[in-house]
């Protein structure tokens, strides 16, 4: 009897301790407004990862990670960390911000299952997974693969679907997590965002979103992460609406891995298969201003089937194009247009003509989706998609299917991308607002500095003066919208290489438009390139930059390419009244991928096709600038107040 | 002395624990596993409704609240049955969980305490070195695509450099910030330059070659207490948590005789 009384007292005391516990400083807890001095204009890109999993994620834990949010934050800030498998790991350059995005479904559940007394695990499936998780890392990985497949097929054991029980367990975890984030959030130095991943996956088709909050714990504590399985995207938006209404805070959602959605991420129809309503389109545009276009599980910019005239299409497509996330359903080419970002931007234009609002007016970022708690995006320090594939000899050539079917191998995985945000300072508010106005861009890892301004009065001689001021005062930055004035828009584009990385091959403008027949069209223009032998014909494509990669040593030379490429480009095919978007793609010279670094590290002998597939041109994608017929009511979130008042 | 002891979070911890224990002993234990009556007060129901509201951003419907309550009752019954079966006894998980909770309690107590001014000043005096801000540099740079071009321009009074989208003037940047702009080799080399009126270099970066006019170097300093008060408190708190946890354990540990064969 005494024993139980003591037990209860302990629990009661624990509750008191939490309620009264002191919190981090006011500045760390807030959104950073007034915490630091802001630049007049966004003066540098801030680098971050918006998509990182830790041991709170149901799958990451099962895959073996034993590092939590604290380690993830310390690693992102540049500290040396011991990875789960025992290697020490450190970023050569710290990140500026991080969104920890653990799955909301079953948050902490595998950890709880793993920690539970075996006799309490009654469900036969859960008990089998429990045993597998305790048996060995390989079995643990297999258990999680089964779990993901079960989730995809909608037959998760009842015990794991009980959202109310989950919510209860999640409350404690979420509160503690928010405190940790605040402690590591240091306005001006490093920004820690609260967030989670919402994991909607009908029939295994990936409709996942990362949800990112602008606010500190005073507001985010008022909600819990919203579960995704069995849900609908409008339910997520309801949740976001409710959050903003209740707390006066702000929140956005970032779709990702559209490449694994079998055409469902960017449909022409509404979610029920009927015509898309203007209201649905408006909500989508307002809630989802940015798409994650590149990450470890492949690149979603475009597919060679969709862009046959784009010789650089197809980066990070191999393996991923075969089917949906668990490979339970194969992809067919008719699905691709709903799976890739460029075709989605085109669909957005078409839908805007019909509905008066563009549901797919999104900017683009990259991130990792790493499940190791380590936000590694570079080729020479790739710590793997999850803990089971942290650096070791076999990982490049092994089959790495989440499900049990064939088709995807270790070498299909990319090292992951990063997100760059043009902001006036490093705070939650400034970086979040940059996402809202789409002044962000994607890279496949290298930290290239990409600037883009568009306007009708910009010209070549702006480069001689303060061209950044010219861009902001007489034009719009990436993510902005221009209203047609009857003149062709001019673009000022500057791409600087990563100071620690490879030179640049070329800068391209990708234009999408709806032609007079209502047909969506696309074209890629080379607008700047490094010096090379040209073959003379003025309309011939720019020849390849060359290739300095030493396959055996995983090295390259910056003897080709350029450190910076600039362009002043006026659309030569402009037609008045045409609805269009323009985004910039920057290509590096060819470099070796992580697979070749692995081959050197472990003395592997790789097949020739694998080696050649892993000499690649890494790249950056800007968010688009849209050109909209004059006198059209403003409907996209890019019309949020510009950063400059009185500009 | 007693007053000081009363401010000690560990004392709070023990006193609060004793008080709750006492109250429970008098009032009777609400989770007596032998008891087969479960009461769900209005207050507790309101708590369930609130939890739902925090999750969904709206109040539960009657049906939803009923489901919450049924769920709570189910859990309560299973919990009591588990206690009755002695499932908590000798279970390594329950053992580990409770131990972790005790640890956390000690830490949470330290988190609650507001240190007084004197404590923080003492902490600052003893640990001030770690609040030192790194040095910052102020410089102008001119970029050239080749070493030869940079060398040729060095004799100019004010080298203009070739056009590139890098800042001409870098103001009050730490070596880390400089590394983000120009790469780490450049940051290292520039940090090693002497400050003065002339142009130095060329210094190599990821972009090419730079002539550098390092006109001012501001050395790192230990800011006065008032400027870093928050950081001192944060540091005091995080390091105190660990110490409290250890102290709380030691206190308990001292009451045991341990024999490891």
Would you kindly provide a written description of the structure presented here, covering whatever features stand out?
- The complex is a heterodimer of chains A (647) and B (261).
- With 647 residues, chain A is of the alpha+beta class.
- Chain A folds into two domains: 398 residues, no CATH class; 180 residues, no CATH class.
- Chain A is 27% helix and 19% strand.
- In chain A, the strands form six sheets. In chain A, strands 1, 4, 5, 12, 13, 16, 18, 19, 21, 24 and 25 form an eleven-stranded mixed sheet that branches. Chain A has a four-stranded antiparallel sheet with strand order 15-14-17-20, with helices on one face. In chain A, strands 6-7-8 form a three-stranded antiparallel sheet, with helices on one face.
- In chain A, a hairpin with a 2-residue loop joins strand 9 and strand 10.
- In chain A, helix 6 runs antiparallel to helix 7.
- The N terminus and C terminus of chain A are likely disordered.
- Chain B has 261 residues and is an alpha+beta fold.
- Chain B folds into two domains: 139 residues, no CATH class; 85 residues, Chitinase A, domain 3, CATH 3.10.50.40.
- Chain B is 55% helix and 11% strand.
- In chain B, strands 2-1-4-3 form a four-stranded antiparallel sheet.
- In chain B, helix 6 packs across helix 10.
- Chain B is elongated.
- Chain B starts with a helix and ends in an 8-residue tail after the last helix.
- About 4% of the residues of chain B have low confidence.
- The interface between A and B is large, with 59 and 65 residues.
Structure summary:
With 647 residues, chain A is of the alpha+beta class. In chain A, 27% of the residues lie in helices and 19% in strands. In chain A, strands 1, 4, 5, 12, 13, 16, 18, 19, 21, 24 and 25 form an 11-stranded mixed β-sheet that branches.
């Amino acid at each position: 009897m005494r024993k139980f009384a003591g037990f209860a007292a302990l629990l009661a005391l624990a509750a008191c301790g939490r309620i009264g516990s002191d919190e981090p400083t006011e500045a760390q807890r807030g959104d950073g407004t007034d915490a630091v001095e802001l630049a007049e204009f966004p003066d540098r890109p801030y680098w971050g990862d918006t998509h990182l999993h830790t041991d709170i994620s149901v799958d990451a834990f099962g895959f073996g990670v034993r590092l939590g949010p604290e380690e993830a934050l310390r690693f992102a800030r540049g500290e040396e960390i011991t990875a789960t498998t025992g290697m020490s790991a450190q970023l050569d350059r710290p990140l500026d911000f991080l969104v920890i995005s653990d799955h909301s479904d079953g948050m902490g559940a595998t950890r709880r299952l793993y920690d539970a007394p075996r006799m309490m695990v009654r469900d036969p499936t859960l008990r089998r997974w429990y045993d597998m998780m305790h048996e060995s890392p390989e079995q643990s990985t297999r258990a999680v693969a089964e779990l993901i497949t079960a989730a995809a097929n909608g037959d998760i054991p009842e015990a794991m679907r009980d959202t109310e029980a989950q919510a209860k367990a999640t409350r404690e975890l979420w509160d503690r997590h928010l405190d940790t984030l605040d402690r590591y959030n240091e306005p001006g130095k490093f920004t820690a965002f609260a967030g989670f991943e919402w994991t909607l996956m009908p029939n295994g088709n990936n409709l996942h979103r990362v949800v990112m909050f602008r606010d500190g714990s005073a507001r985010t504590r008022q909600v819990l992460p919203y579960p995704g399985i069995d849900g609908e995207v409008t339910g997520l938006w309801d949740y976001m609406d409710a959050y903003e209404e209740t707390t006066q805070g702000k929140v956005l959602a970032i779709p990702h891995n559209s490449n694994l959605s079998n055409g469902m991420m960017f449909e022409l129809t509404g979610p029920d298969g009927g015509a898309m309503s203007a209201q649905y389109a408006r909500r989508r545009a307002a809630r989802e201003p940015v798409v994650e276009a590149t990450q470890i599980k492949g690149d979603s910019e475009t597919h060679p089937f969709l862009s046959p005239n784009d010789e650089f299409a197809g980066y990070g497509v191999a393996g991923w194009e075969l089917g949906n996330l668990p490979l339970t359903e194969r992809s067919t080419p008719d699905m691709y247009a709903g799976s890739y970002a460029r075709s989605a931007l085109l669909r957005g234009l078409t839908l805007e003509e019909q509905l008066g609002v563009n549901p797919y007016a999104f900017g683009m970022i990259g991130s990792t989706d790493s499940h190791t708690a380590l936000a590694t995006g570079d080729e020479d320090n790739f710590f793997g998609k999850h803990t089971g594939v942290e650096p070791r000899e076999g990982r490049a050539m092994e089959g790495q299917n989440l499900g049990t079917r064939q088709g995807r191998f270790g070498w299909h995985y990319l090292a992951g991308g990063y997100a760059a945000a043009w902001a006036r300072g490093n705070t939650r508010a400034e970086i979040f607002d940059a996402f809202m106005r789409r002044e962000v861009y994607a890279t496949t890892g290298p930290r290239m500095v990409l600037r883009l301004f568009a306007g009708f009065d910009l010209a070549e001689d702006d480069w001689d003066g303060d061209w950044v001021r010219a861009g902001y005062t007489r034009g719009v930055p990436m993510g902005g919208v221009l209203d047609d004035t009857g003149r062709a828009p001019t673009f000022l584009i500057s791409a600087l290489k990563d100071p620690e990385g490879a030179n640049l091959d070329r800068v391209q403008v990708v234009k999408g438009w709806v032609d007079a027949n209502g047909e969506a069209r696309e074209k890629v223009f080379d607008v700047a390139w490094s010096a090379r032998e040209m073959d003379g014909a003025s309309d011939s494509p720019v020849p390849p930059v060359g290739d300095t990669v030493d396959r055996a040593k995983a090295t390259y030379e910056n003897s080709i390419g350029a450190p910076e490429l600039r362009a002043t480009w006026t659309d030569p095919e402009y037609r008045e009244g045409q609805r269009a978007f323009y985004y910039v793609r920057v290509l590096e010279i060819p470099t070796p991928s992580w697979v070749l670094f692995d081959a050197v590290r472990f003395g592997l002998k790789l097949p020739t096709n694998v080696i050649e597939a892993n000499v690649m041109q890494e790249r950056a994608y800007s968010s688009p600038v849209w050109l909209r017929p004059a006198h059209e009511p403003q409907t996209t979130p890019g019309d949020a107040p510009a950063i400059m008042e009185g500009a | 002395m007693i007053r000081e002891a009363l401010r000690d979070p560990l004392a709070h911890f023990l006193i609060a624990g004793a008080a709750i224990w006492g109250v429970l002993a008098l009032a009777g234990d609400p989770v007596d596993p032998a008891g087969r009556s479960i009461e769900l007060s209005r207050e507790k129901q309101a708590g369930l409704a609130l939890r739902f509201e925090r999750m969904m951003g709206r109040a539960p419907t009657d049906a939803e609240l009923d489901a919450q309550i049924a769920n709570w009752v189910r859990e309560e019954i299973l919990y009591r049955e588990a206690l009755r079966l002695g499932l908590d006894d000798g279970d390594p998980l329950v053992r580990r969980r409770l131990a972790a909770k005790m640890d956390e309690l000690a830490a949470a107590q330290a988190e609650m305490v507001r240190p007084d001014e004197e404590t923080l000043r003492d902490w600052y005096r003893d640990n001030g070195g770690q609040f030192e801000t790194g040095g910052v540099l102020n410089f102008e740079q001119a970029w050239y695509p080749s070493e030869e071009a940079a060398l040729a321009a060095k004799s100019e009074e004010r080298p203009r450099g070739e056009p590139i989208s890098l800042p001409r003037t870098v103001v009050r940047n730490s070596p880390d910030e400089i590394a983000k702009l120009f790469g780490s080799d450049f940051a290292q080399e520039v940090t090693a330059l002497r400050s003065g009126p002339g142009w130095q270099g060329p210094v190599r970066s990821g972009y090419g070659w730079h002539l550098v006019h390092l006109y001012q170097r501001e050395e790192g300093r230990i800011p006065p207490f008032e400027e870093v008060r928050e950081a001192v408190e944060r540091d005091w708190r995080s390091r105190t948590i660990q110490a409290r946890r250890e102290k709380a354990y030691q206190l308990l540990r001292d009451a045991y005789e341990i024999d490891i064969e």
